[in-house]
Amino acid sequence: MLFELDTNLEGYNLIGLLGKSTSYRDVYHVREENSDKDMIMIVYNLKALPDCFDEDVIPEFEVAKNLVNITGETKLMFPEFVEHGHLVDEFVAISWMVLEYENYTTLHDYIFSNNSIDEKEILLQFYNLLIGIKELSWQLGGGCHNNISTNSVLVYNDKDGNTKLRIAGLNCVSMKCEGTVTFDRTIPSVLFKAPETLIGHYNIKTDIFALGILLAYILQKKHPWEEGITSYGENLNDARMVRYMKDNDAQLDMEEPLKKIVARAISLKPSRRFQNIEEFAFAIAKYLGIEQQRESDFLTKEVSKKDIFKQNSNTEETAEDSKQQVLSQPKSNVKIERVTGNGFKDVAGMEQLKCKLTRNFVSIMQNRELAEQFHITPPNGILLWGPPGTGKSFISKKLAEESGLLFSVINPSDLGSIYIHGSQNMIADLFNRGEEMAAKNNCGVLLVFEEFDSLVPKRGTNDDNNQANEVAEFLTRLNDCANKNVFVVATTNRIDAIDPAIIRHGRVDEIIYVGLPDDNARKELIELELVKRPHDEIDTNHIAKLTHGYTSSDISFIVKECARRSFDVSVQAKHLVKINQDLLERTIAETRPSVTPDELKQYEKMNEKFIKGKNNERPRIGFNII
């Protein structure tokens, strides 16, 4: 314990210790000095922080003070933030936070001291708990709680006597971890850890596993692998728990529909679990009869008893209300279809880029089973960025042709909506449709997002809340979407304007700068444009040199303009006049490059800065405030 009880700390009297202490963190029951109001105070000893903490930043505090409900109305699922501060002098160096206090008990004590738990009521609160975990993930930019257990979920009764749950234990929040863990991994309970955490993998699916164990405790008052826990006793550790789970089936004593839900949540293979919180919540909602039409409708509000349908209340009025709700959900009108063509054969130059895409994407997509044997997966997302007119959109379509994928191009206007959260729902609908079509056609779907910077701009304290929610929706949907056979290619001219959380591994795995075409690329592009049109013998090597500094779209424009001029002359002369060398050179002389030398230097400077930043990037403690 960092401080003795009855100590006055920053205007609060410490009257009790709540929960388990660590060498650097205590949670106290405190009373405000002037008002006698009960509060919770969390205190960190800055001199004893583990190495995983970065520059004395306390992620738990940064997250807690920014948590708001999805609707922006109130903080429903977390203890209310009051204030936080620092105390540093010659004797102590601490950071502290105060939260609102209710007469809480832990979910563990509630379960094992209450013999008459109302199943529907507690499942309803579990559904709301999932909303809270999803909200937390949004605030973390797609991160996770990592410390879900029956001791980190609190229970209290509101003024009307209704049972409510609150989420605590935020001292392990982080971004997705893939081997390098950015929190104190000794804190989470071994009883709630997914098998992959043994090798340092933490993500939303490990939270789902923990939530599944939590749900099992609620429904049957024991762990699904209770016998292993009992047999190992005090000698239980992570490795032994994982070994026991792999060698023995989970024991689930509950109704069959709930058994299926829990079994899926606690599957030892992440790919067999619910892929996101929405799927988990939708399964609970369906069991309870909560009015949710599909997974993308989830997370709109906390629900109460009045939101649960009676089993036989299928009246015309209810059906009409349900119909109206479905009709009111904005959906994207973007078409997802199969494209045919010559693939990369139509792409002039870009040899290095084509080789990279072939090796890292096309080859894997065309040899999935073999790739799986080597544990090789295609990139979840690819970002092509650079000056305008360099062929980023064109090669994206050719990538779909080369890979044999279904394909769709999405412009920012395609996801625009006049409704609150409308764009957010359209993004969810687009990815859901992609997943459905991928499953139906047994074929991957490639979604190409144009002007990506306008869809996922950097978030800040003064951002429009709806736009921040849209960014958060993208963060959620991009997380391992490749596992659902949906792949993303995004294009932008402004990588510096994109929210940093988007371009992290697990969302956008490949970031490729597409610069101006070199001499060979320009030569090939000129030849591709000319071969479709009547022309005299052209010295394409010379034309390629004359177009140094021109983009791919500039060269296409030049040849098309020559074609137009030759057509006009042919109409007047009443016979065919072909495109010739002189006409090409005159048109080039009259056409300025669309990217100036100064602009090009800025792009190249930005690329060098970005590469340098990536190379020097070190793992940081995981949180990203929206």
Task: Describe the protein.
The protein has 626 residues and is α+β, with helices and mostly antiparallel strands. It folds into 4 domains: 1-101, Phosphorylase Kinase, domain 1 (2-Layer Sandwich); 106-313, Transferase(Phosphotransferase) domain 1 (Transferase(Phosphotransferase), domain 1); 337-512, P-loop containing nucleotide triphosphate hydrolases (Rossmann fold); 519-594, Helicase, Ruva Protein, domain 3 (Orthogonal Bundle). Helix content is 39%, strand content 13%. It contains 20 helices and 17 strands. The strands form 4 sheets. A 6-stranded antiparallel β-sheet has the order 1-2-3-4-6-5, with no helix packed on it. Strand 8 (153-157) and strand 9 (163-167) form a beta hairpin. Helix 3 (119-139) packs antiparallel against helix 4 (204-220), helix 3 runs antiparallel to helix 8 and helix 16 crosses helix 17. The longest helix has 22 residues, at 552-573. It starts with 7 loop residues before the first strand and ends in a 10-residue tail after the last helix. Mean pLDDT is 83; it is low at 69-75, 293-297, 305-329, 461-465 and 616-626.
